[in-house]
């Protein structure tokens, strides 16, 4: 059938923002039929009932059964239209022509998929707004038709060029159903959209980034989740693209702990400076940077002992020049982002500044941990000790 669009949304405790998402879908100025498919992973807040009231076909699965790729592939068999939108429970379309614009872009360009720009939600915290802006700056604000000349040309691309070339985002994307049936989402645990895009481009298909179509989407995530997500993102993007942004296979678990200890001292000093400099009367709330201590709590007992001994006798284990450079770059990165967020988002309250510092630190360290793990994996089988060390951080993403 060609007279409508099937919209597939995985859900889990969608809350009030899912209600707004459904409301905006219901307000679409779209001449065709809309089939709404919701795959719910055990919500307890009334999300399935809300979806049913909105006219959705609801498929319920156990929370343990959810998988980014498999769940989306299985939901496709419920779609009755030739054009399929995959989106998420916490987007809000920015216009009433969202669906019409998606359909027109897909049809007029002949591409396999079209994905959209994302603006932050009204309640986005400063770090969420910064993260959102980084993504928008990376993608640009002009339409981009993405394709690959050959496997060889892709292999020669630097990491960030390769990532940009095959970028795709299931936060909001419209697909041709035939392309999805021909090439289902590869069964990776993360970044299934990126993996699908690469496989399709190697088959000669194209993808369009269309920033003229926008949805609101952002996350006020806990620092620990940001840390874990950076590890998962680095690992799975490396697996998909067969490269890393920076080869860190020369670093060991002990090196990561040494690095983390050095960064811990640095951010605690920044946190102390925030407390001393602030003149705002917000004396309640946390008094120190917490994320690194929370990360260290997830170390094995043996590694926790090593971490605290290394920090107690911090001059007894010399660092390599390479590790010193990475630590220095991490500190500079944390400070630069902190200054940028304070300036661009007018953050002045000390409690909010400390929260921002926690989030920045978590994401900077998570990216390094992930690069180390990915680098070892690409070099061959990662050491078993490294695998057991990293696996707990990759759960629940």
Provide a descriptive summary of the structure in words:
The chain is 52% helix and 13% strand. It is an alpha/beta fold and 397 residues long. The protein has two domains: 4-220, Spore Coat Polysaccharide Biosynthesis Protein SpsA, Chain A, CATH 3.90.550; 241-394, no CATH class. Strands 1, 2, 3, 4, 5, 6, 7, 8 and 9 form a nine-stranded mixed sheet that branches. Helix 10 (223-241) runs parallel beside helix 15. The longest helix is centred in the last third of the chain and has 29 residues, at 350-378. Mean pLDDT is 93; it is low at 282-287.
**Topology order in helix (H) and strand (E) letters:** EHEHEHEEHEHEHHEHHEHHHHHHH
- The CATH topology of the largest domain is what? Spore Coat Polysaccharide Biosynthesis Protein SpsA, Chain A
- Name of the CATH homologous superfamily of the largest domain: Spore Coat Polysaccharide Biosynthesis Protein SpsA, Chain A
Radius of gyration, rounded? 22 Å
What's the end-to-end separation, in Å? Answer: 35 Å
Q: The biggest beta sheet, please?
A: 9 strands, mixed
CATH class identity of the largest domain: Alpha Beta
């Amino acid at each position: 059938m060609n007279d409508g669009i099937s919209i597939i949304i995985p859900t889990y405790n969608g809350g009030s923002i899912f209600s707004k998402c459904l409301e905006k879908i219901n307000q679409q100025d779209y001449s065709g039929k809309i089939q709404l498919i919701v795959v719910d992973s055990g919500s307890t807040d009334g999300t399935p009932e809300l979806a049913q009231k909105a006219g959705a076909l609801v498929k319920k699965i156990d929370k343990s059964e959810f998988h980014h790729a498999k769940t989306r592939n299985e939901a496709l068999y419920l779609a009755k239209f030739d054009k399929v939108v995959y989106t998420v429970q916490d987007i809000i379309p920015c216009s009433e022509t969202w669906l019409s614009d998606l359909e027109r872009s897909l049809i007029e360009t002949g591409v396999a998929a079209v994905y959209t720009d994302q603006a932050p939600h009204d309640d986005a915290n400063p770090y969420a707004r910064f993260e959102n802006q980084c993504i928008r700056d990376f993608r640009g604000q002009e339409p981009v038709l993405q394709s690959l000349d050959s496997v060889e040309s892709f292999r020669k691309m630097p990491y960030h060029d390769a990532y940009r070339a095959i970028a795709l985002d299931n936060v909001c994307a419209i697909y041709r159903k035939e392309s999805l049936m021909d090439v289902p989402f590869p069964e990776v645990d993360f970044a299934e959209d990126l993996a699908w895009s690469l496989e399709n481009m190697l088959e000669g298909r194209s993808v369009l980034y269309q920033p003229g179509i926008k949805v609101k989407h952002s996350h006020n995530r806990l620092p620990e989740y940001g840390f874990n997500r950076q590890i998962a993102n680095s690992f799975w993007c490396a697996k998909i693209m067969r490269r890393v942004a920076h080869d860190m296979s020369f670093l060991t678990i002990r090196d990561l702990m040494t690095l983390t200890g050095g960064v811990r001292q640095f951010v605690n000093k920044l946190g102390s400076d925030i407390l001393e400099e602030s003149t705002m009367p917000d004396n309640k709330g946390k008094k120190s940077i917490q994320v690194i201590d929370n990360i260290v709590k997830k170390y094995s007992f043996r590694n926790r002992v090593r971490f605290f001994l290394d920090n107690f006798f911090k001059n007894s284990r010399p660092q390599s020049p390479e590790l010193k450079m990475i630590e220095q770059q991490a500190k500079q990165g944390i400070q630069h982002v902190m200054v940028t967020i304070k300036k661009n988002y007018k953050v002045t309250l000390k409690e909010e500044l400390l929260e921002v510092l926690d989030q920045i630190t978590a994401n900077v360290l998570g990216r390094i941990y992930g690069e180390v793990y990915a680098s070892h994996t690409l070099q061959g089988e990662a050491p078993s000790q490294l695998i057991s060390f990293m696996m707990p951080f990759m759960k629940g993403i």
